């Protein structure tokens, strides 16, 4: 007999006669992919840590607290625009572990999104389809839980957690007069809304005073875009994935459509209801396109220069590691190794040295020597990895006007699309694999600052190629205009004004401004009442404002660094955040490893608690 999922109104009053005291209770706050992934690991580990124990006789209540449906949660709910896609190919999305994950618990194999949905693995599925997959994973997981485990979904928000360190916790829900009793609480909250920072408050106040439109950082699918009027200019700050959603909803979402010409090129046919989007950012270019070819041949043996031993050494530094001084040189060498391993293996005609000689010299070289070695071994500068140039693609680029900039930016995007879909540039894919490897190691270091996460997303988590083809069509149609790099926004003379370093001395004015990016997940500025209360009562945070957790099992740390015995947290609001929403098959999956460790700690705690109660 499997576990049951019961509505929140059902009370667990039937207690086995063999039990003593209340049924064990676990509260998971957040029922999206992370909460579902934790539940899957609980089901996988239960036969070892649950079956045959006193806990099996007393049963277990698992309470999932989330105003949105279990599985997809808020971001991946099935009730959203059908125009919005996933940002990963269907073959690269799985909720199930494999033997590449370094974890203690058993592997729990299951289908990827494309296997489950019967899709071409290269398709970028709609978010509705992903929501359906997550709902199925949740339902399958509930069915796999042991007999006596009841899963209750409470479609409410949790507002605070109370209780002594040594006793049961009380989880208060919005609009519910009595708290949920919990032996353990796990926060799997996902992405968070945030209060505006000082700049956003100033811009919002100016907009209110002058009748302007200001949309702060938000989840684009949840933003009210109705105030952005047809034909009116809109300044957009941010060129990542939030912008892509905005672009889709304000064009196709307002009735526009694309036509494919005889040459395969796209033409955008406006509906007349679109605003004109003037978009810029710090880099001034969109995130790099997803790579459009598959890997062939030998993979670079990773990790090579940034693995567990190097992380151990960094963690042993008396004052902790500094990212730029201590971590980045190792990351740079690791990514370079992945790049050149692929170049020498797959494109030897573009090298001037035997791989064995290069590898030996590369391993011994310091940062300064690497550049000289590469220059002697790789004749074409285009084949050399320059991470600084990648991070600042428009440095030194200047145009006399915004009109002149448009052709230049279109050429940049076209070049990026061509390169990312040409296997002649397969070292790019090797660097992508290196980025995944590096991220798996960096998780152990905790808060490393915001720069790395943005750099990773820019290189490895950009939009599908078809979205950039659409962006180009919108640019040619005049619906989208580029502003360039170093974008700055001011408010004066009753309007918003944007400038950029790419077009010095020029500016663009508009009565609407959209901050096309997600809120930064700081505990201090979150709108989540539960996290704010935890912080006020002493939960530890990092310099970046993330919730501090024990890297071993996700227990919440207080400001002295002491783990709370009954409170855990997983996800992007913590300093153990991973590289993305989902894991690619056979890539080691740090999130899987974390979920497994937390699930085992939860089950062991409940088992031991039950045994003590029965003694």
Automatic annotation (TrEMBL):
Residue ranges annotated for the FAD-dependent urate hydroxylase HpyO/Asp monooxygenase CreE-like FAD/NAD(P)-binding domain, each copy included: 27-191
Q: Which InterPro entries match?
A: FAD/NAD-bd_sf (IPR036188), HpyO/CreE_NAD-binding (IPR038732), L-asp_N-monooxygenase_NS-form (IPR052189)
Q: Where is the composition biased (Low complexity)?
A: 1-19
Q: Name one Pfam family in it.
A: NAD_binding_9
Stretches the record annotates as Disordered:
1-26, 561-592
Q: Which domain of life is it from?
A: Bacteria
The record's PANTHER family line, in alphabetical order, gives: BLR0577 PROTEIN
Official protein name in the record = FAD/NAD(P)-binding protein
From which organism does this entry originate?
A: Streptomyces apricus
